[in-house]
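Appendix B. Raw example, untouched.
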Amino acid sequence: MDELRVETERLLLLPMSYEFMNAMLENRPTDLEEQGYTLSEGWINLEVLNYVDILRLLMPEDRVIDGFYTWVIIEKHARRIIGDVGFKGRPNELGVVDIGYGLAPAERGKHYATEAVRALLTWVFSQSGVRRVSAECAEDNTASMRILTNMGMKQMMHDGSTIFWELKKDQFVL
């Protein structure tokens, strides 16, 4: 993991390195586990592994950890990795980044996702070139819809099963 970090009252967010992604995909201990952090049961599942595999391929060749990819969510007190939050790459030509997040099943309902998303939105809107953040969620994912609404995101489109959201930089309120 790189020096880049975001902290909240309960959480530590660290950018996921290329090496961390490889360790996850190869089912071997990550650098964070070697530092004494534990994995929350159920966080690493087939969906997370598929996403990490795709994300690893999207990372630039220099593999510079710039914060525009996935971050690991760590519950500080327990030193437990509970999920991930992050972006699908650097801002596009319109200054848009797409955010996504996920928690281990046992960690849901504790407002960790809300705390992590708010912290990462604060971070990303402080980066040059970022004008908007987009997101998408399944129309039946009421928890995710609540988080996005609480962040001030607006529904932009609905395709029958997925809702697409957006938040402009000047509309984000801490």
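End of appendix B.
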